[in-house]
Amino acid sequence: MIISFASDDEKGLDGILAYHFGRCPYFTFVEVEGDRVKNVKVEKNPYLESHESGAIPKFIKEKGAEMIFAGGMGPKAQNWFSELGIKPIAGAYGKIQNILDEYLESQIPTEEHKLPSREKELKEEKNEEVERIKKELAHLRAIIAEMDERLRKIE
After folding, report:
1. Percentage of residues in the chain with pLDDT exceeding 90?
2. Which domain holds residue 145?
3. Are residues 72 and 88 both part of a single domain?
4. Measuring CA to CA, how many Å separate 50 from each of 45, 46, 72, 78, 144?
5. 30: which of 56, 65, 102, 125 is 20 to 30 A away, CA to CA?
């Protein structure tokens, strides 16, 4: 079985699950046999910029995945995956290895598309991410202002 994970980075099993599958930069594909990992492959999200409806579920299907884990996923995407025979699991978070271990130990319910006990933590994580991005944006604006000032002095 191949399990796909929406990933924030290229670190494979050491990577972090992305909050939203459609906007993640990478997908980690883990081939498992029973409770043993046979292969791990990380691929860039080829539809990161286009967000074409149904393109990512089709891409995941082409890779042979039977399941996808993501922090968040809308109902339309969940329907796409389900129609393609891929089990969508939203509401997970953290390190991919830990999520995989929980799944392999049957601690993650696969009949539910959400993990309600983690919704509050996901919201807090999203809020932290928003705050981090705001700080980065302010920092980048300061750098741009400084560069603009230097350019003016050169001219």
Report:
1. 47
2. 115-155
3. yes
4. 10, 9, 18, 19, 27
5. 125
